[in-house]
Amino acid sequence: MQPIKRSRKHVEEEPTMAEPKIKYDRQLRIWGEVGQAALEEASICLLNCGPTGSEALKNLVLGGVGCITIVDGSTVQIGDLGNNFMVDAKSVGQSKAKSVCAFLQELNDSVNARFIEENPDTLITTNPSFFSQFTLVIATQLVEDSMVKLDRICREANVKLVLVRSYGLAGFVRISVKEHPIIDSKPDHFLDDLRLNNPWPELKSFVETIDLNVSEPPAAHKHIPYVVILVKMAEEWALSHSGNLPSTREEKKEFKDLVKSKMISTDEDNYKEAIEAAFKVFAPRGISSEVQKLINDSCAEANSNSSAFWVMVAALKEFVLNEGDGEAPLEGSIPDMTSSTEHYINLQKIYLAKAEADFLAMEERVKNILKKIGRDPNSISKPTIKSFCKNARKLKLCRYRMVEDEFSNPSVTEIQKYLADEDYSGAMGFYILLRAADRFAANYNKFPGQFDGGMDEDISRLKTTALSLLTDLGCNGAVLPDDLINEMCRFGASEIHVVSAFVGGIASQEVIKLVTKQFVPMLGTYIFNGIDHKSQLLKL
Amino acid sequence: MADLDVPPQVPQSKTRDLDKLLLRHGNLVDPGFFPGPDLRDDIRDYVRILVVGAGGLGCELLKDLALSGFRNLDVIDMDRIEVTNLNRQFLFRLEDVGKPKAEVAAKRVMERVSGVEIVPHFSRIEDKEIEFYSDFNIIALGLDSIEARKYINGVACGFLEYNEDDTPKRETIKPMVDGGTEGFKGHARVILPGVTPCFECTIYLFPPQVKFPLCTLAETPRNAAHCIEYAHLIQWEAVHHGKTFDPDEPEHMKWVYDEAIRRAELFGIPGVTYSLTQGVVKNIIPAIASTNAIISAACALETLKIVSACSKTLVNYLTYNGGEGLYTEVTKFERDTDCLVCGPGILIELDTSVTLSKFIEMLEDHPKLLLSKASVKHGENTLYMQAPPVLEEFHRPKLSKPLYDLMGRVQKDTIHVFGTALKNNEKESCSTKVRVVFKGADGVTDMDTAIGA
């Protein structure tokens, strides 16, 4: 690194905080040090470094990805100066990969950046084993044939693949990975794991130590946390309703009124919170259908080839059936709520202790399963199992069709549904037209509208090509609006910088999700519609 | 471009890709699209864009606009570069830390994209004359605060004039494009004052900031943030007596952190870290490069569309969420026709005898305004300024004159008032339009009686 000149005032420093940690502070607050470490270990390959590829990679270099390899065989043209920020006038005539690599390296010297001057299509055909060294490949501006071939190669080598295309005001992003399990899916909104309607013995006995009718000291009544109030009220309700919880709208209202009736003055925030949180009492007990689906998956029968994720899912399945009594391991954290400090801290400890007990049970099961399938019982680390337990209710699994399967055999009913839907028809139309443009290029050795002149002929040829593609896909009789076909020809395979920055930005965001194994990557084929922004994820 | 002196049809042109959109006829375009070299050249030569903010969005916006056919850009930002900017503000390097963002950003883009002229303004947005903002065709906002958005919104809407029938005068519309991000989420929107909702029309889109009740901080702290805020908001003042807390001063932050640790230990509360202390005290919004790139690109694309009509303009709000899968949605928000900022203005009926100072008092009492310390402008003509003292003194003699006379004895007109308004117990700078109608002044004959009354 270069010597650091800094004006004292504008650096957030802490004696123990290293420079990179400060630099990445705003993203560490999102994916944490575990996520950052995953990024720093990743080796990313970029195919074609026009604006789409350059912009996608730029965002990853800034974030501190470990290693980038840029593959592009072209030289910088004057036209590239108008849409790519990673080339300049001095680089005209020189290797584009070299120029882009040098400018990207400037953004972050902790990234290991290299380039290969070679045409990606040639590389795909002549040297498929090249790709196996990477964590992930970002392939930009490839035509259909190359995408299909590359997908096969990457699947085989277990390399993640993100395909990106920018074409006039249209764009395309598609992930291809056989299977992407996520433990830390970080959903925006998720019901807290409080077990208000299914308390375990320790929680129950803590609740029993607190008297809702306490009158001394005067503040005590308004400092009872709502968890205690609701556990008590749920129990009281169940006693008088033969063990059932409120289920109908009337019963739910009645329950809330019951809670309200316990208020002794109108300024009791804890009771207001209890009424607002009453819906947590009504939530069904046990695991969600999504978790159920996961533990029913055939992969949840662990064998010697099972990944750590599936071994833990197998353990989860046993846990739910045994000590979990229908529930997943407890998450262990509680939201902030009006309470005395003492009650809150005690409650926190009770939840944490239960989470720890559940974790120990899970750890035992994981070890036993590993032993059974002939693996080192300690091969899955404690922190991994802990994280799995904490997120057991939020586990996600993304599986992607092979690109070839989708291209040759998409869901016809979905295509027809999308074409008929006002919000989707533009995106669906672009999907067909992007593929038709590749067929057009294969037939006529240029993209529709790529050169000035002959526009009318290109329009009618593109239309014919698109309709025959639709027929090949089994959508006989489907039509595309002429306006859209015209626009596609007008685009003439141009790479508009802002469209590239948009789809490239999305690609880099998806790469981050795939590499950090946090958040949930997109499922389906994303079509960018720059005309009215009715972009859509098509499930084909 | 022109400096290369080659006709546009020649493949060796920097506008190779953009020309497809700007030189060719389109079917899905906005009304008023006249493709051709003139359109491209006019965008290059005559359109001026102001980028407000040179941070995560601003850096991207400058690059995006420079590569979208615009050559005349200005950028305004009062901040200096910090180390924590470097994970996304790609125009800055470690050696730039401490330098003004606007200046470095402008320099870097001009170095890379030849022909582009970017004028940096290392300044607060409030310190610029209102006229400064009127020079631009479009204002692109890359901001992270609601206050700054409100200010620019007020300025841009201030240029808006209405016809007799309450329709906006086209030539007075100052379009804005606005982006915002947080983590994997963001929004991009187009604001055409008088046509689509302005910030104030949809102020409900910004959730109120979470603030802890003081009694929680003082009496029943339960988590690390409570301990940090106690040290920051209560203990600092108690110990330092009037010395202002400066979040950029590491020693101040360290003090708050140490006090928060002490308090947390006292109550048995886990989780106070230096990083969390900074996060809570500075209200840090997590930010990453990719989201900024996505949102800025959408804003720049809309800027190009507004200027050229080369495609359909976004109507009018794009939501982006990349956290769980990928979710985008376009929402057509509706205007608040009573909006104080972009609406035709608050109607105030006055006697022709009302003096300027009486009028300024009325602004303070007006239930919809509650505007104190108001400065008053009538078109280009400043009627009164509260500050600086030298200008106040200059305008002071007018205070005792009738507003009617000061406004050139017209029966009705719009004036602009600027001052501080009390909203939710907090003072905010605020600018608003007032439509003044003088009672009984519609004819010369009535005038004397009105004054005499």
Automatic annotation (TrEMBL), chain A:
One of its GO terms (cellular component) is cytoplasm. Signal peptide: none annotated. Pfam families: ThiF. Pathway: Protein modification; protein neddylation. GO terms for molecular function: NEDD8 activating enzyme activity; nucleotide binding. GO terms for biological process: auxin-activated signaling pathway; DNA repair; leaf morphogenesis; protein neddylation; reciprocal meiotic recombination; response to cytokinin; response to water deprivation. It is found in: Nucleus. Residues 24-518 form the THIF-type NAD/FAD binding fold domain. It comes from the Eukaryota. Keywords: Nucleotide-binding, Nucleus, Ubl conjugation pathway. InterPro entries: APP-BP1 (IPR030667), ThiF/MoeB/HesA (IPR045886), ThiF_NAD_FAD-bd (IPR000594), Ubiquitin-activating_enz (IPR035985). Regulatory subunit of the dimeric E1 enzyme. E1 activates RUB1/NEDD8 by first adenylating its C-terminal glycine residue with ATP, thereafter linking this residue to the side chain of the catalytic cysteine, yielding a RUB1-ECR1 thioester and free AMP. E1 finally transfers RUB1 to the catalytic cysteine of RCE1. Belongs to the ubiquitin-activating E1 family. ULA1 subfamily. This is NEDD8-activating enzyme E1 regulatory subunit.
From TrEMBL, chain B:
The active site is at C215. Keywords: ATP-binding, Ligase, Nucleotide-binding, Ubl conjugation pathway. It holds the Pfam family ThiF. GO terms for molecular function: ATP binding; NEDD8 activating enzyme activity. SUPFAM superfamilies: Activating enzymes of the ubiquitin-like proteins. Residues 348-439 form the E2 binding domain. The keyword Disulfide bond does not apply. It comes from the Eukaryota. It catalyses: ATP + [NEDD8 protein] + [E1 NEDD8-activating enzyme]-L-cysteine = AMP + diphosphate + [E1 NEDD8-activating enzyme]-S-[NEDD8 protein]-yl-L-cysteine. Catalytic subunit of the dimeric E1 enzyme, which activates NEDD8. Belongs to the ubiquitin-activating E1 family. UBA3 subfamily. This is NEDD8-activating enzyme E1 catalytic subunit. The lineage of its organism: Eukaryota, Viridiplantae, Streptophyta, Embryophyta, Tracheophyta.
